[in-house]
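Task: sequence design from structure.
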């Protein structure tokens, strides 16, 4: 237990050392010690139980869409979202030292990473093998020491596992970016006058126009809703839970009125976090299409 980081300086993430979540921890909080966890639930528990100060959790990717299970788990984690982080994902084809790219016959990685690098897999005629995560695939390449076996993972995974990058930037799209949220035990109270994001969940009954009525206040009050995810709850089909991100602070008149109208037409409205907008969000809004 002596090798565990100081809890006040630890930031938990799901995955093995070298995962993209690990890379996000290093980029966003370079002064903190990343704490790898086997599952998302383990990462939440590390923060809740005081073994880490924060948890860095991926929530959506510009190519692959939402990260499975996270939207179900965050509302019940007992934590608060206090920040967001955008990480540009640059995939590398990793192999053991001395291997040549023309030797590679098979490549292993997470299903999303393989899907984001279809062009390279097709170009080289590789057999794609789905693994649990990118960093784990890199560790397996290092363990097997087979020059025909490669992984798609981060440059950090290569560094940690003693591998070499045979080709960098192998993703099909240059805009491959993952959005993370940072969770903590205590809620953040950002300045209402600065650009903020408010994340919340709510439920509506499965009846005609329920969602339309619930969201009407956001339109009439000029609130920009940047994310809306739905999923069934309780194993039934009579109610749907929604996970939403909107730009603004609940203390501001527009969002306050929109949330009041939402509360009238829905139930179990619960704010999961109010936090500053990441500069990437502002840059995306201002960038020409």
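Answer:
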């Amino acid at each position: 237990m002596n090798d565990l980081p100081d809890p006040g300086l630890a930031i938990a993430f799901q995955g093995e050392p070298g995962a993209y979540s690990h890379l996000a921890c290093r980029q966003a909080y370079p002064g903190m010690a990343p704490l790898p966890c086997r599952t998302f639930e383990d990462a939440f528990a590390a923060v809740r139980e005081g073994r880490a100060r924060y948890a860095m959790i991926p929530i959506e990717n510009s190519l692959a869409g939402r990260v499975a299970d996270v939207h179900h788990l965050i509302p019940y984690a007992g934590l608060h979202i206090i920040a967001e982080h955008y990480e540009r994902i640059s995939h590398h084809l990793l192999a053991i030292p001395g291997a040549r790219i023309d030797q590679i016959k098979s490549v292993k990685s997470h299903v999303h990473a393989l899907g984001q690098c279809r062009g390279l897999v097709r170009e080289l005629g590789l057999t794609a093998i789905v693994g649990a995560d990118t960093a784990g695939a890199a560790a397996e390449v290092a363990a097997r020491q087979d020059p025909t076996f490669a992984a798609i993972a981060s440059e950090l995974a290569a560094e940690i596992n003693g591998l070499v990058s045979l080709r960098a930037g192998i993703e099909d799209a240059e805009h491959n970016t993952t959005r993370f949220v940072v969770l903590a035990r205590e809620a953040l109270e950002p300045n209402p006058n600065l650009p903020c994001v408010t994340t919340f969940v709510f439920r509506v009954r499965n009846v005609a126009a329920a969602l339309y009525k619930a969201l009407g206040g956001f339109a009439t009050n000029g609130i920009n809703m940047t994310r809306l995810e739905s999923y069934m709850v309780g194993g039934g089909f009579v109610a749907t839970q929604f996970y939403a991100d909107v730009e603004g602070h609940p203390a501001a008149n527009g969002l306050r009125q929109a949330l009041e109208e939402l509360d009238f037409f829905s139930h179990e409205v619960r704010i999961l976090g109010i936090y500053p907008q990441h500069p990437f969000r502002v840059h995306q809004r201002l960038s020409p299409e």
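The longest strand covers residues 196-205.
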